[in-house]
Amino acid sequence: MVLSDIVSRKFRFWSFVSMVLLVFVHGYNLNIRYLQPWTVPGETMSFSAFTEYFLANGIFRFRIPMLFIISGFLYAWHDQKPNKLRLKKRLRTLLVPYLIWSAFGIVLTYAMEVFPTGRNLVAGSHIVQIDDTRQLLHNYRWYELLGRWLLIPVPYQLWFIRVLLIYNLAYPAIRWCVTNHIAKWIFFSIALLMWLGTTGFVFIEGEGLLFFSLGVWIQKTDFAIDSPGKWFCPRYWGIAFVMLAAIKTLIAFQGDTFLGNAIFPVLTLLHKLMILSGLIACWYGLDHLVYWCMEKPWFLWLTAFSFIIYAMHAPLVAYLINPVLSMLQPITGSSLLTFALLPLSIVLLSVAIGALLRRITPGVYGLLTGERGF
């Protein structure tokens, strides 16, 4: 099976765009910053707050399911290669960068804690807080530091690599489940319920399992991904996508007055429907944008730095939110301005550092990126 030109371009385009959008989601700066489907903003609604929530916990949230689908599809697409060889390569392209960047996050944070300003930034971000009294890595026991390095990285975005590696190890079982006529109905029912409930088992979580497996199923069934079928008209799904994101945002700000505790399941359901509509609308409805971007040399050059953007942006973005907010505070709409400028600056910084490393020390760059971006 050979990927069509448009599908190949779309994979590369959406992989890059998803990484950039991830930085913006992690640059969300309203009062309650740990985003879940049911997160409420914790402040009154304004144009700035509405826009930020609408984007960060709405429009941009399809990106991780998109990446899991692409990952599952591509892993299944290379089935002609022995799985042992692919797993061996995965250890080099996933596990090694995971361990390196996780260690870098610990070293960076530990070094910041040596200085009062850095210590305040770390404590204020709550990223490494382990209980009510221990907010710094300096307060960790040795085995807690080991756990941070191996299982719960300070660069919190690395959870995707950890989970993806587990799904790669489990791929033969996943492939059998999604291709067996009887087992697939049971398997996808369980995966769907896990996704709807935002639950998982240990490091098997619902969102990744459902969409990685869906990517495998799409590849194995030759599902039409080049053009939409009659049920996937992107115009209608696009309207639903935007409307669901807007309704969810309004309810997140004001829904507790008439929904009470029921607001949380309502927000979760709207979130799931929004993601499905966003996946369909963006995949099938933005082909002209994909073609336009992928024909530009500068954009093609940028896509090579998807992984370095992914790996470098956190925890840096979380540590800088409060200082940038304080610096821009006198300006009207400082929250929205911070949401726009800080992630964009970090993306540009990541690209600049990546380009410099690739040029000066390509071996180090290859190690840091799992041999991506050449």
Your description of this structure?
With 374 residues, this protein is mainly alpha-helical. 70% of the residues lie in helices and 1% in strands. The protein has 19 helices and 2 strands. A two-stranded antiparallel sheet has the order 1-2. 37% of the residues are buried. The mean pLDDT is 93.
Arithmetic mean of pLDDT: 93
Residue stretches low in confidence (pLDDT < 50, at least 5 long) are: none
Our measurement of the CA-to-CA distance between the termini, rounded to an integer number of angstroms, reads: 25 Å
Number of strands: 2
Number of H/I helices: 19
Tell me the overall shape: globular
Largest sheet: 2 strands, antiparallel
Beta fraction of the residues? under 5%
Radius of gyration: 21 Å
SSE string, helix = H, strand = E? HHHHHHHHHEEHHHHHHHHHH
Kindly state the percentage of residues in helix. Answer: over 70%
Structural class: mainly alpha
**For the largest beta sheet, what order do the strands appear in spatially?**
1-2
Number of domains: 1
Offer a quick outline of the entry.
Helices cover 70% and strands 1% of the residues. The chain is built from 19 helices and 2 strands. Helix 1 crosses helix 14, helix 4 packs across helix 6 and helix 8 (171-179) packs across helix 10.
List the helices and strands and how they pair.
Layout: H1 5-26, H2 47-56, H3 63-77, H4 83-112, H5 116-125, H6 142-150, H7 159-169, H8 171-179, H9 183-196, E1 200-201, E2 204-205, H10 206-220, H11 234-254, H12 256-259, H13 263-285, H14 287-294, H15 297-303, H16 306-312, H17 316-328, H18 334-360, H19 362-369
Antiparallel strand pairs: 1-2
Helix pairs in contact: 1-3, 1-14, 1-16, 1-18, 2-11, 2-18, 3-10, 4-6, 4-7, 5-17, 8-9, 8-10, 9-10, 11-13, 17-18, 18-19
